[in-house]
Amino acid sequence: MTSTSTSSPHQFPEGSDAFPHRHLLGIAGLQPWEILYLLKEAEQWVDLNKKSSKHADRLDGLTVINAFFENSTRTLLSFEIAGKRMGADVVNMHAAQSSVKKGETLIDTAVTLNSMKADAIVIRHASSGAVQLIADKVDCPVLNAGDGRHEHPTQALLDALTIQRRKGDISGLTITICGDVMHSRVARSNIYCLTTLGAKVRVCAPPSLLPDALDRMNVESFTNFDDALAGSDVVMMLRLQSERMSGDFIPSPREYHYLYGLTKERLKNAKPDALIMHPGPMNRGVEIDSEVADDLERSAITEQVEMGVAVRMACLDILTRKSRGVEGWS
Length: 330
Ligand code: CP
Hints:
- Helix content is 35%, strand content 13%.
- It has 12 helices and 9 strands.
- Strand 1 (63-68), helix 2 and strand 2 (89-94) form a beta-alpha-beta unit.
- Helix 1 packs across helix 5 (153-167), helix 1 packs across helix 11 and helix 5 (153-167) packs across helix 6.
- Mean pLDDT is 93; it is low at 1-6.
């Protein structure tokens, strides 16, 4: 990138590409203006998605492969809807029904997808770093739909878009992320995204679920949820990721709920207009009570899902511009 000086760290530098990356593998390393550009581009798709006819021809003739080696509802469906709404041919590969089950390696699978001339490949995998491995082997843009406990960049972008639309400028907001931070790629991507955009990020979890790496991530750590909630503008809850846990990290779900569950009573510690978020899937009655999750005024959980389609449309559009010969990225 040819970067020139800017008057604000959030301002797009003149003379450089708006988003000069081939892949979207994570939020770490992205500049604030690159994140803001993705969010700005997503706005047009939010508007389209509210119309009765939602078709755009931006990706006509392109093939998008969603290769999911781990279960998903929101991410898989929203990438599929995003590609189809923009006119692409979208194909889903579920690892459980693929030759992965016959022992095919990840790299052989990647080479196979590449030979089918995909224009973009979206990958979810249980291993941190697996998406980077595939990106190194293929000729098209790769989008990380969640790899192990590493990153889930489009989730962070859709969360940022939701916060921005509800609260305005993210810079200066106090945002508390509570739950199984240790195993959460959502927490990691959100920490990178929100701190890069200037938010004050707090993380809260039992000591057994707070990773040491937080010391280097520009966040404030809490083990007392009430303390973490005090003065928060946004409260983002995470589920316990039992599929990534070996051994017991909490005494019991009941005790976890008592100490770290978001209840209507406990929410009173946050600002009166604090926004409630959860990436899903939720474990109601464990990390969040239904009374809070379903509060139409305070909860942005369904809006997060809505923003997910728009953000993924923007990402597919932006990353395929080079192959579509679109000039002038800004
Ligand atoms: N938030 C999220 O990644 O949900 P899915 O696992 O359903 O895709």
